[in-house]
Amino acid sequence: MSSRSLPPFRFSSQSNLTYASYVDENLSYSHTQCMWLLDEARGAFVTEPTMTPEHHGLESTEPQKATRRLSPWAAVAAITASTFTVVTSEMMPVGLLTPLADALGVSEGIAGLSLTITGVLGAVLSPFAPVLIGRLDRRIALIVFMGLLAVANLVSGFAQTFTVLMLSRVLLGVALGLVWGIAAGIGLRLVDESQIGKAMTWIFSGVALASVLGIPAGTYTASLIDWRAAFFTLAALSGVVVVVLAITLPRLPVTERATVRGLFGVLGNSGVRNGLIVTACVVVGHFTAFTYVRPLLDGSGATPAVIALILAFYGAAGIAGTFGLGPLAGSRPRTSSLVVTAGIATCIALLTLDLGLSIVVIVVAAWGVAYGGVAVSTQSWTRQADPARVETSAAIWSGVFNAGIAAGAALGGTLIDGAGLGVTLWTGATLAAIAALIALSSRVTQRQ
Fold first, then answer.
1. Bridge partners of 89?
2. Residue 107: how many CB atoms within 10 A of its CB?
3. Tens digit of pLDDT for each residue in 263-298?
4. Single pTM value for the model
5. How many C-beta neighbours within 10 Å does residue 14 have?
6. The domain over range 66-258 is classified in CATH as 1.20.1250.20
7. What sign does the dihedral 120-340-379-276 (CA atoms) show?
8. In a 3-state reduction of DSSP, which class is residue 213?
């Protein structure tokens, strides 16, 4: 428990502190406030004090741990379900593109804009999530925006025109940006400091699970019924997550006064800045190459059924990478970031060679392991670089990550049409290698 930032006492030892000595020309405190501050400075509060700074008109900026309701791991599981549902909802059009386009009377290229608009909005809004949400308890905010996600999926399922679909995807983009903007910073408030790395690993595993389970399950549902059923299922799942969040999440009062100026203040931290640059380079590089991995697999002689299995294998490897690299990311994020960025660069570069199908499968799986550790490694980097402003740095990190996805897909599309698959892969490998060099030459501000 600490008060707001105050000028230091002008004494050589705390044993000499007296009430009369605490004088500051810029701030005026009441007698009671001064006595509270004096007792705190002397270390009088060995146990929890009955009076807090707020009782005396002082503002506490100490991050508050969540008020316990159920097991903290139940809350972590609920947030993992949130990230799984959000990412599955964002990426679902990928598996439904052809039937969706046919039903709404547009080309597949136009239908793909339903994915683009969601990603762009998520990237723009997530850095400003703490500012836009303001002082609202983060538990309530997460519940509200997951509810908005449910509504957006429901509207998508009922859409009879492409315009209505796009409006629903705008709603989904808002929910995506704001959920990601706060979910990434909540994990450390739910568990003890020694378990933060494990909690963040679980939360980010929702991203890999969406690739392995969520999107294939939605595509399978569409093949059994129709594409609308996939969106209705996601709406129902979102509603279930809202209920689970309401039951398991404790109160999460605001711990930071987020302002637009504060966003730029976080960027002034060299550790945070380097972590964000590493994130941008590796995510853009990854998606420049991976978005167009299908032509690569087609060229290696894989049938459509085999390609589906390879991509499922890639997703499973991603989950293994998330959990396997999670402990390293929690304790040494720079080392973990170096491993994953170098791994991605190496795997993409190898795929430019004329390899047999069996070797391609192994390399793609290794690529999945490396990419599975990207989110947990880079987010741990920014968190440890500025532990006093975790929510703000996590929100900016989310924006950079989502922007990297959109930028990588756009860059890859431009290159593959204009220069071919080989140049596309080498560009992705180069960007990932740049990320590795930055990780190698930089350091996280907090000693590892």
1. none
2. 9
3. 777 888 889 999 999 999 999 999 888 877 877 887
4. 0.72
5. 10
6. yes
7. negative
8. helix
Tens-digit pLDDT profile for residues 327-367: 888 889 999 999 999 999 999 999 999 888 889 999 999 99
Q: Which of 320, 309, 419 is nearest to 367 (CA)?
A: 320
Pick the CATH number of 259-448 from 3.40.30.10, 1.10.10.410, 1.20.1250.20, 3.30.420.40: 1.20.1250.20
Closest CA to 218 of 369, 410, 84: 84
Phi, psi of 258 (to 5 degrees): -80, 130
Name the maximum alpha-carbon separation found in the chain: 83
Going by the DSSP 8-state scheme, the letter that residue 64 receives in this structure is P
DSSP 210: I
DSSP-based helix, strand, coil % in the chain, nearest 5: 75, 0, 25
Query: What are the domain boundaries of the chain?
Result: 1-62, 66-258, 259-448
Tell me the Cα Rg of the chain: 24
- How many Å apart are CA 80 and CA 47, to the nearest integer? 35
State how far the Cα of 148 lies from the Cα of 73, in Å rounded to an integer.
25
Residue 192 φ/ψ, nearest 5 degrees: -65, 160
